[in-house]
Write a structure and sequence with these properties.
Radius of gyration: 17 Å
Order of helices and strands: EHEHEHEHEH
CATH superfamily: NAD(P)-binding Rossmann-like Domain
Shape: globular
Largest sheet: 5 strands, parallel
CATH class: Alpha Beta
CATH architecture: 3-Layer(aba) Sandwich
Low-confidence stretches: 1-10
Mean pLDDT: 78
Number of strands: 5
Length: 142
């Protein structure tokens, strides 16, 4: 059985350094990471393509993409190429060709020990509330 991934330390045994790309939606992620003792938010950047290169030079281990979902693929590719792990807050591609391009970059990055993880946190949506109701009433899995 594989060892569980240890999120609290990088390879050097130090705090994980997090960069948040996309200020408006990224604020909640910054708060989450700031509440975890073994992580540190070291950079926050708006959605500006001009600032991305400078943003990626702040020594982070992980980039959290909170920019527009239609812009996640190019941002993810830049982050992976610069040797960062990537957490993409929503689906990362808008077209099949973008998905193929991203998959090819992820395959190369994985060989170097970097990963991408797609996140979606929808705890307040009506659908999520309905599903929570189903699970509480034990209506699922019967």
């Amino acid at each position: 059985m594989a060892e569980p991934f240890k999120v609290t330390e990088d390879k050097m045994g130090k705090k994980l350094k997090v960069g948040i790309f996309g200020i408006r939606r990224g604020g909640s992620f910054a708060n989450i990471f700031n509440s975890i003792p073994d992580t540190e938010v070291v950079a926050v950047c708006d959605n500006s393509e001009i600032r991305v290169k400078n943003f990626l030079q702040h020594g982070m281990n992980i980039v959290v993409l909170c920019n527009y979902c239609t812009k996640h693929t190019p941002a993810a590719i830049k982050a992976l190429k610069s040797g960062k792990h990537v957490l993409s807050e929503v689906i990362a591609c808008k077209t099949l060709s973008e998905g193929v391009s991203l998959c090819r970059k992820v395959e190369k990055a994985e060989k170097k020990g970097y990963f991408i993880c797609l996140l979606k946190i929808i705890v307040i949506s009506p659908i999520s509330k309905k599903w929570r109701g189903f699970t509480k009433q034990e209506k699922l899995g019967n």
